[in-house]
Amino acid sequence: MMPPLEVLCLTLDGDAGAAAAQLVAHDWAVTHAHTVPAAQRMLAHGNFHVGLMIAGATLGVPAASVESLVHASDATEWVALCEAQALESPEFRDLVLDCFFDQQVLPVDWNGLAVMLAHAQQRALLRQRRRSETRSHDALGMVGQGTVIARLRAEIRKVASTDAPVLIGGESGSGKELAARAIHQCSQRAAGPFVVVNCGAIAPSLIHSELFGHERGAFTGASSDRRGLIEAANGGTLFLDEIGDLPLDLQTNLLRFLQEKTIIRVGAVRNLKVDVRVVAASHVDLAEAVAVGRFREDLFYRLNVLSIDVQPLRRRMEDVPVLAEHFFQRCAATSRTRARGFSRQSMEAMQAHSWPGNVRELYNRVQRAVVMTDRRLIAPADLGLSMADNAIGVALNTARITAERDIICLTLNRVGRNITHAARELGVSRMTLYRLMDKHSITSDEPSRQPAPSWNAAPAPLRIAPSRVAGYGPST
Hints:
Blueprint: E1 6-11, H1 16-25, E2 29-33, H2 36-45, E3 50-54, H3 63-72, E4 77-82, H4 90-99, E5 102-105, H5 110-136, H6 147-160, E6 166-169, H7 176-186, E7 194-198, H8 204-212, H9 229-232, E8 237-241, H10 248-260, E9 262-263, E10 272-273, E11 277-282, H11 286-291, H12 297-303, E12 306-309, H13 320-332, E13 341-342, H14 344-352, H15 358-372, E14 377-378, H16 387-414, H17 419-426, H18 430-439
Parallel strand pairs: 1-2, 1-3, 3-4, 4-5, 6-11, 6-12, 7-8, 8-11, 13-14
Antiparallel strand pairs: 9-10
């Protein structure tokens, strides 16, 4: 059952009473606003799926204020009513094209308007449903709905229940810091600080002081005592990002901290007790770094108590549409853009792209597209992607299907169409082979009753029905 249609009627010019009477006659709940600020206040306190702006021969207010109103009400679809003369203004035309679901010229065709508003409501409800689904996939702050991200969430919840060190592996841009934050938020330390240290971004001459702090007078410029980042994380979690870049001498000090849970500030003579859980991450293989002498073996084993691998985006392509929509909503909320989503071609191009820069690359491409596009639907070119990428993906998929079909045909011919023998050679069950034959429209005459072939006799020819694979006969 459709929810009642609530309309916010912003009357900038015209007879508000007559419009309200007609709207009420169509069983719509009408809320009136006569200024843009009033409409903004009502949107902040109400749930309107449809907004109706009534203007005259001119807008009467700055177009930028109306644009801000529309962009601030993402859950509302807007329809414009105006005099035909208003559409002669380029500014007004741009406003309607960029911000409104549809428009109608006065005098009002009430039957046509009723259909238009009903369509606007349907679109608003669809948009609301998409946002709620996106939020439901944002568990632990990690967007995705595939099996890979679900397994990662399960691993995070397990390691979060202890205080043991965690080592996170994964390519650059894959979301290692996000996983570390999720571990902290699920742990008993969630109320404590989460301190991030990028071990590769701090100057080697400063990193000791940055991590452990210093006492007044410890070196030139040390005019007062200063807590280090480890001490700042007391009671919470210390995230050591790219720990493979940590100098060897600092690795020794870090090992002592992990073993004794104490630190010594630069220039100090006494130990400080700290209660910190360490989560480390690296895009390089630390086991290999140990083998070549670039990372201490004892520190590696001290950190690698619990390990998690964050998979690259190319291994969880099913999450690309959800991630793209999540990033679009985030970027659109802070940008004045006319874009309302992605075109079908954009989604196909994103699904075909290999994403060498992982999730970070996807976010950067969406952010650029939101800012730079002049379209209502983001195109592949706005993302810096081409349809050629998609064509390669389609061709590869077709090649896989073709190869699968060919090997089944060759195997069946070689064993004289004996399903049992063919299934054994292919390493699948008889039922799976029957399913694959049906998938590729491969037929034979009672293949299960055929005897095993004599190696001195040529096998009977296999009859193949027209395939549904592109390039192999008519489609069905």
